[in-house]
Amino acid sequence: MSQIPPQNFAGVWPADDRPAPPRVGTEAEVLTAYLDWHRTTLEAKCEGLSPEQLSARAVPTSALSLHGLVRHLAGVERWWFRIQFAGEDLPLLYYADDDPDQDFDDLGGDPAEAFATWRAEVDRSREIVAAAGTLDAAGMESRSGEPIQLRSVLVKLIAEYARHNGHADLLRESIDGATGV
């Protein structure tokens, strides 16, 4: 069997203290660990940057910024875990029918506030997952009226974070040249 050359492995983020997701575990352990790994990755991509750098739209033609990604993912956490799965009656974050892209477009607020909101939503999401007790538990998807199992919500969030962590990689490298997984 051939070996993959070391230069083909992605670099590791400086001071990377993210716990590696398990290679063996229950479905719930693996899914929640991968989601937490992606959450921590987003946070790592934003570490050490000024508010101006976090709000920079560092890739021409794109409205994306790290600040906007944090706002967006706070809204995604709320939407899927609290509103769709747990059925909580809450307003959407950073969204209005007449301004649906507030999360990315309106960066007038302090990024530290956006991080506090995101962390609070992540904490609440973790509480909801713990209280569900099983991945078979289901909420009601409001758009379709169909049930949605917790395992599907977790997979949706992993995919959402993975996509946006790719954006965060590009944004961070454009801001200060920092790269790594």
Structure overview:
The chain has 181 residues and is mostly helical. 54% of the residues lie in helices and 3% in strands. The chain has helices at residues 27-46, 51-55, 66-85, 102-105, 111-132, 150-176, and strands spanning 138-140, 147-149. A two-stranded antiparallel ribbon has the order 1-2. Strand 1 and strand 2 (147-149) form a beta hairpin. Helix 3 (66-85) packs parallel to helix 5 (111-132). The longest helix is centred in the last third of the chain and has 27 residues, at 150-176. It is globular, with a radius of gyration of 17 Å. The chain starts with 26 loop residues before the first helix and ends in a 5-residue tail after the last helix. 28% of the residues are buried.
Q: Main attributes?
A:
single chain; 181 residues; mainly alpha; two-stranded antiparallel sheet; 6 helices; 2 strands
Explain the layout of strands and helices.
Layout: H1 27-46, H2 51-55, H3 66-85, H4 102-105, H5 111-132, E1 138-140, E2 147-149, H6 150-176
Antiparallel strand pairs: 1-2
Helix pairs in contact: 1-6, 3-5, 3-6
Main β sheet profile: 2 strands, antiparallel
Shape: globular
Order of helices and strands: HHHHHEEH
Q: Identify low-pLDDT runs.
A: none
Structural class: mainly alpha
Distance separating the two termini: 26 Å
Mean pLDDT over the residues? 91
> How are the strands ordered across the major sheet?
1-2
